[in-house]
Specification:
The complex is a heterodimer. Chain A is an alpha/beta fold. Chain A has 15 helices and 23 strands. Chain B has a 7-stranded antiparallel beta sheet with strand order 8-3-10-1-16-15-17, with helices on one face. Classes of the chains: A alpha/beta, B alpha+beta.
């Protein structure tokens, strides 16, 4: 027999501070708290460390502690390794997990430092000088045919492909209605509109409540084709074909039938209560030329007015795949690093498949330049972007813009507890239970997400100014302004950065 | 990718350019004096001159100015390379005169060269052959460095004060109709002759005061078009960017300069339709060619001289006119040293180029 495993968390209530208001009982959707006479009892085993109770307790009476019970320590047979085995020995199943990669890989971003000006060139003060963060996503011509006509006016003879124009390089990535609640999606859409950026629908269709924000929405076409029809494509500001996802490269997705309520069934265009299964590959894309065909098909369907993105997971061969995508009519390639979040992924994929976004962007940018096709696609980096410094670093490595996912959820209250797949999110984000969804007020959440993007954008302007750069274009691929700190030689070669002091 | 790169050189510097729009001869002594007016801006570790119209007898040949590390060892292999690539009409040592304060670490030589057209199947322009030759030779570092490669022009530069460099080459013996000159204050690779300005590729020469904070972006961009940055200094990308935009992409010089120092978006947003459209296109297509950081640049080819600054004008630039002559410099004093009776002096606004053209 295996018996019960030690509880992961221990929740305790300070009886002196507690005033038995029962807010913890009301707020905990996992059933940690219950009333027993004049006491509040705690079942720590149910706790996910979502902090909803901590955040709601008016008296700071609740304390939470991780791993209150030790195993015998062992460097190889960690607690996680042992517990995974106990669980699989009992169930015989694949272990599901939420959020991003949870293994302790080194974070390359934290081994890269940015540059600033001293003496030989002036740093710029964003309060006095314009610092431009406007970002255009889409194909750019490699050269222009600009001529003067007989009156001396300049005439542009090159036809430009439509680009998305964002006022910041920070965009919001794809999280579907189904994976997150409608209130969460509305909040993200409002925030995107407010700060002049874009958000993605994920593969969940476009609910009518999002139509007012459609010019700020990138609609996704993924392998299940949920929610896709001509109306959907025409509403989007751009279309994204999702091939893969950083949290689970090489596999598809699964929205369990119990989450497919009336609204989701209508938005995804599937029967109520049926499982929404996105296959691993698109069954009409078995090669790069098939992908190019779908890109062209979507372009034709929307009269070549919409940029089309292709999103891939950062895998070993990402650079060559991106070069293939650049040769199609696609306008941008989204590279999702192995730290990318997800509502639910098999743990073995989340933690072990794919490569870090920093290395993927560096090699994609280099490959596109080597082949002289960097202008053919924009590069959007995603997967584990935690702050403006990560944005600056990944742009210096070669990205045009970033997608944030987890960071936007955190801005709405998410505590990264990693239980999204259970549908009980007490913050009203990753759930469809009406009483929980109601907790998320789009007026407030939209403001918080907009604040976050605004704050990062301000910080980016400061970082650029300090580096003596007044436009984001001049940071892009400017790896001279990065240095590696305690990075090994071979990785610095991949990133094409020098070490600190060099 | 090349091996590990050194830091690009950071420099302060004084610059001056003068052009006679009717191709009237300007002797080298005036520009020597003008440049020495700006010694405050230099440190005696680099100066140089580019002169247009100095080789009329070989006007159809590419004039290659070459620095040899060791004339005994390095010249023969270089001659062999030129022989593979075309015909040398004439070659000779560039006359130099020892100066007590200038250590002659290189032997300057000039070749008047015609590329072999059969090297360019499909009729690629001769300019492409010569540009490829320059990139190959300079990247190979076999003791020979091509410092200028245009027709009827030459770059004379060395590590030293402007007067010493001028006297070393006896610059007053040359008569050109356009001159560029540069007084350098290096902070990174002092003593490296290749780091002195002007920088040249084919017809275009560049002098630059400033630091390009976008160097990494510009270098990665230009290298994807087959250029190789081998001079350890940021200015060389300017010469290559102008070559790419003007010669290879066929943009007018004023439009090319606009791509390098474009208007801010807030200004573009206020432009009328067609103007807004082409300015937007220019910023999109040439985003990575755009140069950031403080700079004032004077560039010239056989028929043009252009001065422009960064978009915020963080380096000085003064323009003077007198008769047929156009002057562009860091300092008014330098212009007045050459032309005490200068008729007009003006300071162009940030990012606003000044262009002089030789009358046809």
């Amino acid at each position: 027999m295996i018996g019960s495993l030690p509880p992961r968390y221990r929740v305790s209530i300070d009886p002196v501070r507690c005033m038995e208001c029962e807010r913890c009982i009301e707020n905990c959707s996992y059933g940690v708290f219950r009333r027993d006479g004049d006491r509040i009892l705690v079942n720590s085993r149910n706790c996910t460390a979502c902090h909803r109770c901590v955040a709601c307790c008016p008296r700071d009476a609740i304390m939470l502690e991780e791993h209150p019970c030790d195993y015998r320590s062992h460097p190889l047979w960690t607690r996680e390794a042992r517990e995974a085995i106990y669980r699989q020995a009992e169930t015989g199943r694949i272990i599901l997990a939420g959020m991003g990669n949870a293994l302790d890989y080194p974070v390359i971003f934290d081994r890269l430092v940015l540059d600033a000006c001293q003496v030989t060139n002036p740093s710029l003060d964003p309060l006095r000088e314009p610092i431009e963060l406007r970002t255009h996503i889409g194909k750019k011509p490699a050269r222009l045919d600009l001529r003067r006509n007989s009156n001396g006016d300049v005439e542009l003879r090159t036809r430009l492909t439509p680009n998305l124009r964002a006022e910041t390089p920070v965009m919001i990535g794809h999280m579907s209605y189904g994976a997150i609640s409608l209130n969460a999606q509305i909040s993200l859409a409002r925030a995107a509109k407010e700060v002049g950026t874009f958000m993605g629908t994920g593969e969940g269709g476009l609910h009518a409540a999002l139509h007012p924000y459609q010019d700020r929405i990138v609609v996704q076409v993924a392998s299940g084709r949920f929610g896709v029809n001509i109306d959907y494509l025409e509403r989007g500001a751009a279309i994204e074909i999702k091939i893969g996802q950083g949290a689970k490269p090489g596999i598809g997705g699964h929205l369990p039938g119990e989450k497919v309520c009336g609204e989701i069934s209508r938005t995804r265009m599937i029967p109520e209560g049926s499982d929404a299964i996105s296959p691993a590959p698109h069954h009409d894309i078995y090669s790069i030329e098939d992908l190019a065909q779908l890109v062209r098909g979507l372009k034709e369907a929307t009269e070549w007015k919409k940029p089309v993105f292709v999103k891939i997971a950062a895998v070993h061969n990402a650079a060559a795949i991106a070069a293939g995508i650049a040769r199609s009519p696609a306008d941008a390639v989204v590279i999702d690093g192995f730290r990318g979040g997800t509502g639910a992924a098999p743990r073995v994929f989340r933690d072990h498949v794919g490569i870090p976004i920093e290395a993927a962007v560096a090699s994609v940018d280099q490959k596109l330049r080597d082949q002289g096709i960097r202008n053919e696609v924009s590069v959007i980096a995603s997967g584990g972007i935690r702050g403006s410094a990560d944005v600056a670093k990944v742009i210096a490595l070669g990205a045009d813009a970033v997608y944030i996912g987890t960071a936007a959820l955190v801005a709405m209250g998410c505590r990264v507890c990693g239980n999204c797949y259970r549908g009980l999110c007490p913050w009203g984000i990753a759930t469809q239970r009406p009483d929980l969804v109601e907790r998320l007020d789009p007026d407030i959440a939209a403001k918080q997400v907009a604040n976050l993007i605004r704050a990062w954008t301000l910080e980016l302007a400061e970082l650029l100014g300090a580096a003596g750069i007044n436009s984001i274009e001049s940071l892009r691929g400017n790896r001279d302004r990065l240095r590696g700190y305690m990075l090994d030689e071979s990785l610095m070669q991949v990133l094409d950065v020098r070490q600190v002091g060099a | 990718m090349q091996g590990r790169r050194a830091n690009p050189v950071i420099a302060m510097c004084g610059i001056i350019g003068v052009m006679d729009r009717r191709r009237g001869a300007i002797g080298g002594s005036g520009i020597r004096q003008a440049l020495s007016m700006m010694n405050e801006r230099g440190s005696g570790e680099g100066a140089g001159y580019a002169a247009y119209g100095i080789y009329p007898e070989y006007r159809d040949c590419y004039a290659l100015h070459v620095f040899f590390n060791d004339i005994q060892e390095d010249k023969l292999p270089f001659d062999a390379v030129l022989e593979q690539w075309g015909t040398v009409e004439h070659d000779e040592a560039i006359p130099t005169y020892d100066q007590p304060n200038l250590r002659a670490v290189h032997t300057p030589w000039r070749y008047f060269f015609r590329p072999d057209p059969s090297l360019a199947p499909g009729g690629a322009p001769q300019d492409d052959i010569v540009s490829t030759l320059v990139m190959r030779v300079n990247a190979a570092r076999r003791g020979a460095l091509i410092v200028s490669s245009g027709k009827n022009l030459g770059v004379f530069k060395a590590a030293g004060w402007p007067e010493d460099v001028a006297n070393f080459y006896r610059i007053e013996d040359y008569e050109g109709y356009t001159w560029l000159a540069h007084n350098r204050y290096p902070t990174n690779t002092p003593g490296w002759w290749g780091g002195a300005h002007p920088f040249n590729l084919l017809d275009w020469s560049v002098v630059h005061n400033g630091e390009i904070t976008s160097y990494g972006t510009n270098r990665r961009y230009i290298e994807s078009f087959g250029y190789t940055c081998s001079m350890f200094t940021d200015t060389e990308v300017v010469a290559y960017l102008i070559d790419l935009l003007v010669r290879r992409h066929g943009l007018d010089i004023d439009i090319a300069v606009r791509a390098l120092a474009p208007p801010f978006w807030e200004d573009i947003d206020r432009m009328p339709g067609a103007e807004q459209e082409w300015n937007t296109a220019l910023r999109l297509a040439y985003a990575q060619a755009m140069m950031n950081g403080p700079f004032a640049i004077v560039a010239a080819d056989a028929g043009t001289m252009v001065g422009f600054t960064d978009r915020s004008k963080l380096r000085p630039m003064v323009v003077g006119e007198c008769g047929d002559r156009l002057y562009i410099s860091s300092e008014e004093a330098a212009i007045r040293a050459m032309e005490p009776n200068v008729e007009s002096i003006m300071m162009p606004a940030a990012g606003e180029p000044v262009i002089g053209r030789v009358a046809r």
